[in-house]
Design brief:
Length: 436
């Protein structure tokens, strides 16, 4: 205590006279675009990160739509067996790891959802391959984005440092033990990719966050924030301050909304100056930001419940599903497939993994029935290319006796081989001779 008393007795520690509070000047510091980009600051002045971006409903809907579609497609193993037509292999331990349980702590749906979200929001997704002694895959451990540091070293190539204390991992791994799913614009020098946020949606998401904050403050006060109290006589600064505080404490805030009637005395009147949210085109701007964000993610607006515009993706569930797979999901699916194939099949042994895209092509009941009828063939429908049991298997129905044959339409038995062919028909396209 003697030390503090001695310090208090010095001139430096003496309490100074109260100074009149003055308004501080606004910070006019200007930062370069590189610094703003490094800290994830958008042009609207808001910080856009993977966490803050998911607070925007349009971003959350686009990410959920893409990740959900990838989760819903199973991964099958195929073999060429020396031919050109791949044959789907039966379920194996590898199929179970990729489709059911990649790790004791995760389901396959959770892992692929995390991979897709990391690609979209972070730029890269990682997984650790753990092998058995016989060389077969035992486990795929999903790795958080921040726990993996890919480094390119001279003479040693690329190595991955994984720091995951929760699993007791803090060491280097070779590329053969790490699944690295890149995002957009893979950079060979940094071994990192850009996320959709960095690539084209940072400004749109920043504007959406700014408008969400503005909308919250717009309705936060309860009383309208832009109200002028006009007095009939001159008021001092003290009276003006007291009136402002009294008005805010009684009528502003959600707790005071519609609670007490506004009573003004001494000739004071209230006048509204600001425009409404509709007049300020806030709602229209928010709708535009939804479409701008969905455009960056490649998801059409109608798929995230933005129904103000029209779609040219066709009609019906099947055509919409095919367009979504072709124009949006195909890029992400190929990146995942290629990484799995080159790490799980380091040698070209004729086997490969592929997402079952037809899982998203299913249309309504009528369209499915028409497709099955066309595949079976029949009188007036020509030859079929599927048997009855193949169609039943696709509908998860048991096979029936005699349902393994593919329908062949009967040929005209009365046509002779030397009969002139119709104009435009080649000689090698003649109908086969009649079978006696």
């Amino acid at each position: 205590m003697q030390l503090f008393d001695a310090l208090a007795a010095t001139e430096h520690w003496r309490p100074q006279a109260p100074m009149q509070e003055t308004a501080r000047p606004a910070n006019q510091t200007q930062y370069s675009p590189e610094v703003m980009e490094a800290f994830g600051v958008s042009q609207a002045g808001t910080t856009v990160s993977a966490t803050s971006a998911m607070r925007v409903s349009a971003v959350a809907a686009c990410v959920a739509k893409i990740a959900g579609a990838i989760v819903s497609m199973p991964i099958h193993e195929y073999s060429l067996d020396g031919g050109e037509i791949p044959a789907r292999l039966p379920r194996s331990d590898l199929w179970y790891v990729l489709n059911e349980q990649p790790s004791p702590q995760y389901t396959a749906a959770s892992m692929w959802e995390g991979v897709s979200m990391a690609q979209l929001l972070r730029g890269d997704a990682f997984g650790l391959l753990r092998w058995r002694m016989n060389g077969t895959l035992r486990e795929i451990l999903p790795l958080p984005w921040g726990s993996v540091s890919p480094v390119r070293t001279p003479g040693q190539g690329v190595r991955y440092y994984v720091n995951l204390p929760s699993h007791g991992i803090s060491t280097w791994f070779d590329p053969s033990d790490i699944l690295h799913f890149p995002g957009l614009g893979f950079d060979d020098s940094t071994m990192r990719s850009m996320s959709v946020i960095q690539f084209g949606a940072r400004s749109a998401i920043g504007n959406a966050l700014a408008m969400d904050e503005y909308s919250g403050k717009f309705f936060e006060g309860g009383a309208h924030p832009s109200i002028v109290l006009q007095a009939g006589a001159k008021m001092s600064e003290t009276q003006i301050t007291q009136l402002q505080h009294a008005f805010n404490s009684r009528y502003s805030g959600l707790a005071n909304a519609h609670r007490l009637p506004l009573v003004l005395t001494e000739g004071v009147t209230a006048k509204e100056l600001s425009l409404s949210a509709e007049d300020a085109q806030l709602l229209e701007a928010r709708k535009f930001q939804v479409m701008d964000i969905s455009r960056a993610f490649g998801v059409p607006g109608f798929m995230i419940n933005e129904s103000t515009g029209s779609t040219s993706w066709g009609t019906g569930l099947e055509s919409i599903g095919r367009a979504f797979v072709q124009y949006t999901l195909q890029t992400w699916l190929r990146k995942i497939e290629q990484e799995l194939n080159r790490k799980l099949y380091p040698r070209n042994n004729g086997r490969f993994l592929e997402f079952h895209r037809e899982a998203l092509y299913a249309g309504d009941i009528k369209a499915q029935a028409e497709a099955d009828r066309a595949s079976l063939g029949g009188p007036g429908g020509g030859d079929g290319w599927q048997s009855v049991n193949e169609v039943r298997r696709s509908r998860r129905l048991p096979p029936i006796e005699g349902g393994d044959e593919i329908y062949r339409a009967p040929r005209d038995p009365g046509k002779k081989a030397d009969q002139p062919q119709p104009e435009g028909k080649q000689a090698d396209e003649q109908d086969p001779p009649a079978v006696p």
